[in-house]
Specification:
The chain is mainly α. The chain is about 70% helix and about 0% strand. The chain is built from eight helices and no strands. The mean pLDDT is about 85.
Amino acid sequence: VIIREMSDDEAVIAMVDANLQREHILPSEKAFAYKMKLDAIKHQGVASAQVGKKLLSIEKVGEDNGDSRNQVHRYIRITYLIPELLSMVDDTKTAFNPAAELSYLDLSEQRVLINAMELNDCTPSHAQAIMLKRILKLGNFKRKQKATTRKIHLE
């Protein structure tokens, strides 16, 4: 048994690094592991023996695990999915990249989407997920714009 003195953040980083070495890891497990490691690195705020030279935190997570910073970002994004959608990613019923795009939908929009997916027995392509994200973002913008306009007219 080897006992080492380390901070809580160093312990989280060591635990995540050990878990990421497993042969089979679900996308959701990798996503939450990346998120934990990123938070620990950011919390440290300084370079340490565990973290090494000062890089952007997200780049450091990717470098340590053979992923690009964009891929790390996509993994962290899927942690914002509702459990039903995240489970579909783990079960390979929904592709990873479309799921990362769907993570930008708010929780109620994700619930409506999951119902539509089950009803129609289909999942959106990457292009469809991007389009859906843009449409809903534009819709939210227009709703906010109308609410602001109504406030101005009332005053």
